[in-house]
Amino acid sequence: MMTIAISLARRRSITSAILITAVILIGVSAIRFSQPAFVGVPKVLTDFDAFHIAGRLAAAGRLDDAYDADTFLIEQLKVSGIESFMPWTYPPPFVAVVQALSYLPIGLSYALFTGLSFAFYLLVLRRIAGDYLPGVLIAIAPILVINLRTGQNGFLIAGLIGAFLLALMSAREKRAGALLGMLMIKPHLAVSMGLMALWQRSVELLAIAVAVVVALIGAASWLYGFAVWTAFATALRQATGFLELGYYPLFRMSSVYATLFSLGAGPRIAIVGQALCAIAALAVFVLALVKGTTARYRSALACAVAVMVSPYCYDYDLTILGLALAFIIPDILSRSADREVGMVMALSWFVGGYGLVAKILMENVLHLGENGAVLPAQAMAPALIAPALLILCCWMALILLRNPLNVSTR
């Protein structure tokens, strides 16, 4: 973040530095994906490897194998020679995207997907934040690094959400409906966006969203056959079981479920806690809609709620949090002293970077799971992102309730 006093030239130089760093990171990561020995590191599977493997299976007519956890893990083993745990649970329409990418070598495929989705995210973020873009990018820097390094789709999803909210604000209902329909590739992050659409009471918006969803389902069914939905449903059931067993890296999740589970609560208690959190967040959001807050505040709250509903939400999904900050950063700065702004930024870095730091410590210091082996939840670091995220959101909400400070006191 930064104070309002920073010059436009300084802001541009900060943005340029961030972009150059991102390009370098994409280039190095592309080499690590394709030729890790060239940079002196072993092959380690990350998220985009799973994308590429699923795409290749789909291209070979073996998409059912991607949705079968045991078979998919064997395919991952063939690529890296080490055991990993990355089940495939994306809906069939997204498979068409990764299949198209799989025809390219993995390094080029990763660079294309990550570069284009990052550019899309930046364009949307720039439209929301305006001249405050550098401050937003600095505040979410750890989240940017995670997505740039792993090739996850956090930029794509957040870009679609941000574009949807911008379309709503400008009363472009057809565009908003189309963008909302596209979010079916990660529907658990779009619940609050669906509520926003319902609140608009626009038949046209909702009809277009439904039409897009139907079209995507139809296209995927035509490409892979109707039976693919049975395989997809099976994969979701398997993933639910894995989540209940604590097989996923909970310390990288931003859900209350992950926090409670990692601290010793059983899956039933953890899911009750998650349900209560989701209900409370949605209730606050509905109350804000009823009371008629500004469009920017509604949009920021929708983004915050989006990452609090599902038990399955990772740190790379917190690119959505960058959208929330972009909507409200001018008001945050005008109501906070510089010291408090720094504290908010530090907390934002903790939320975005805790999972990354914990993973590095576990692999390099504690030597746990360094070969991708599945660890029990008790052996992992505690999942602390959710409480920090709740504190951050509540803190910023309290700041927004204040009157603006006198600029001369800053």
From TrEMBL:
Cellular component, GO, one term: plasma membrane
Question: Which keywords, in A-to-Z order, does the entry hold?
Answer: Cell membrane, Membrane, Transferase, Transmembrane, Transmembrane helix
- Pfam families documented for this protein: GT87
Which superkingdom heads the taxonomic lineage of this protein's source?
Bacteria
UniProt KW Lyase keyword: no
Membrane topology, as annotated, equals: Multi-pass membrane protein
Q: Which residues cross the membrane?
A: 100-125, 132-148, 154-171, 178-199, 205-233, 245-263, 269-290, 341-361, 381-401
Q: Which GO terms describe its molecular function?
A: hexosyltransferase activity
Q: Where in the cell is it found?
A: Cell membrane
Return the similarity comment. Answer: Belongs to the glycosyltransferase 87 family.
Protein name as catalogued: DUF2029 domain-containing protein
User: From which organism does this entry originate?
Assistant: Novosphingobium fluoreni
